[in-house]
């Protein structure tokens, strides 16, 4: 715990211990690139870097890829209640078109469904709440049956099964190839003059301004 508080010492551990797979939040990796001199370090053992827990700004993700050109990058997504339920292998980003990378495809143990406020499935490309089913789902919140009841919906993909789907509260859209794009939290939206606005979209717009590193 003492080590990971500082970007330089985190990068020291990566180099000295010859770590082969590194998994952390984007914030830690961003600091290691900016202040831990990650690009200057010999890391022959490092094969994969996995990250999850927050959106990785595209400009800074390009910096990570430039610092680790021979290392595979994987974007993972999943609330605590589902564990990791989607994954996306990051391609060469110099030719990537888009404002942020997808959260990816359903993991083999999970299935997702995008629904509207009435829990009706929406077509690909439309924004809705992501529901998740599968073997990694929690059974419920300990000692809180009311919260547990609010967190789950019936299994809309397999109505004949007694399984349930977890309501993530995350807004996504599904691409034609099956990958999900993340659009923010259902409960992080504000309404301005009648328009629903996701606060994360404002942060993303700020990050597109030259000279701004964080928002």
Briefly summarize what is shown:
The chain is built from five helices and twelve strands. The protein is of the alpha+beta class and 215 residues long. The model has no long low-confidence stretch (mean pLDDT 91).
Structure description:
It is a single chain. The protein has 215 residues and is an alpha+beta fold. It has helices at residues 7-16, 26-35, 58-67, 145-151, 199-207; strands at residues 21-24, 48-51, 72-77, 86-89, 105-106, 110-115, 128-134, 152-154, 164-174, 180-185, 189-192, 195-198. Strands 1-2-3-4-5 form a five-stranded mixed β-sheet, covered by helices on one side. Strands 6, 7, 8, 9 and 10 form a five-stranded antiparallel β-sheet that branches. Strand 3 (72-77) and strand 4 (86-89) form a beta hairpin. Helix 1 crosses helix 2. The radius of gyration is 19 Å and the shape is globular. The mean pLDDT is 91.
- Provide the residue-averaged pLDDT: 91
Q: Rg from C-alpha positions? A: 19 Å
Query: From N to C, what is the helix and strand string?
Result: HEHEHEEEEEHEEEEEH
Q: Number of helical runs?
A: 5
Structural class given helices, strands, pairing?
alpha+beta
| First and last CA, distance | 26 Å
Range of strand content: 25-35%
Largest sheet: 5 strands, mixed
Task: Identify the notable features of this structure and list them briefly.
215 residues; alpha+beta; five-stranded antiparallel β-sheet; 5 helices; 21% helix; 28% strand; globular
